[in-house]
Design a protein that fits this description.
globular, 2 helices, alpha/beta
Length: 203
């Protein structure tokens, strides 16, 4: 597990992927509608109308095509989620993909909105329960999010968490130990206090 200071733009395979036989059932129409609703809820809670970039959001376009949203492939021959990464020079330039391990074909696997004027209380994430079983990568660094990190424990599939350079407060909750697949946890340059919980150090 890599803590705090992490270069999130490096090409990396976060973990060895299981065989396709261990994948769960695909995200059906009901699942997709619920996940779309969860993303809309986050857009509204986090000031989406004021985001620097919001291509596709709140349109009739498939939510898997919305800027910053990546869904797991429906092709059963692959378990990798291919997501864009952003260069420091141009935050929206597509470069080499980062690979995460998918288990739910068609489900939302990544939400990446770095340096995008995302604002509001981070606890709104807790209301996006429809994403909790599939979200693998959360990249919200260099934004204006505030409040505690408590809701992070409701997303046990997360493998990469990038929340540096926001205005998050409180302590790192022990519920982070629920993220059993976690490989990268970057929360530097916030207003967090206290010590690292044992649950995090034991991952």
């Amino acid at each position: 597990l890599a803590l705090l200071a992490v270069n999130c733009y490096a090409r990396t395979i976060i973990c060895p992927c299981p065989t396709s036989g261990s994948s769960s059932a695909a995200c059906d129409q009901q699942c997709q509608q619920q996940q779309r609703g969860a993303l809309i809820g986050l857009y509204q809670a986090w000031g989406g109308a004021n985001w620097s970039h919001r291509d596709g959001w709140m349109s009739n376009q498939d939510h898997c095509q919305w800027l910053g949203v990546s869904c797991c492939p429906t092709n059963s021959s692959t378990t990798f989620l291919s997501v864009p990464q952003w260069t420091a020079q141009d935050a929206w330039q597509l470069v080499d993909p980062c690979n995460c391990c998918c288990s739910t074909p068609g489900a939302v696997g990544a939400l990446q909105l770095p340096s995008n004027n995302v604002s509001g209380n981070f606890t709104a994430l807790q209301s996006a329960t429809a994403l909790s079983s599939s979200l693998l990568l959360l990249t919200l660094e260099s934004n204006l999010l505030e409040g505690p990190l408590d809701s992070i424990g409701h997303f046990p599939q997360l493998q990469g968490v990038y929340l540096a350079q926001n205005a998050l407060t409180g302590t790192i909750p022990s519920s982070v130990g629920n993220l059993v697949a976690l490989r990268v946890f970057n929360v530097e340059y916030n207003m967090l206090s206290g010590t690292l919980p044992d649950a995090l150090l034991q991952l």
